[in-house]
Amino acid sequence: MPRGPPLSDIEKGQILALHHQLMSLRDISKELGRSVGAIQRFLKNPSRTSRAYALVTGQKLTVREEKAMIRKASTGNFSAQDQKKDLGLPVEVRRIQQILSATLHLKYKK
């Protein structure tokens, strides 16, 4: 199912206000015409901004590209240089290595 438009600043403020009034997630979603999941994701981490489609200032990789890179690394023996070439990533090899080493579920083995 496609995503709806991102939450506006006004909607975010309304969600926080209604949540502080102890209104349920379902009631908040009916009030604002948004899905319960969207409300729940926002309340879980209000400072998070959506990066799935648009780049954040200073970021060269989208979340989608990072996830693809991690998936490819977890499937087999691919060097950072191979990943850069195969996925067409706009970052240097060293940055790919840094991202992969920061991923908790990946462990380097010889």
From TrEMBL:
Every Tc3 transposase DNA binding domain range: 3-48
GO molecular function, one term: DNA binding
InterPro entries: Homeodomain-like_sf, Tc3_transposase_DNA-bd_dom
Pfam family, one: HTH_Tnp_Tc3_1
Stated name of the protein: Tc3 transposase DNA binding domain-containing protein
Highest classification ranks of the organism: Eukaryota, Rhodophyta, Florideophyceae, Rhodymeniophycidae, Gigartinales
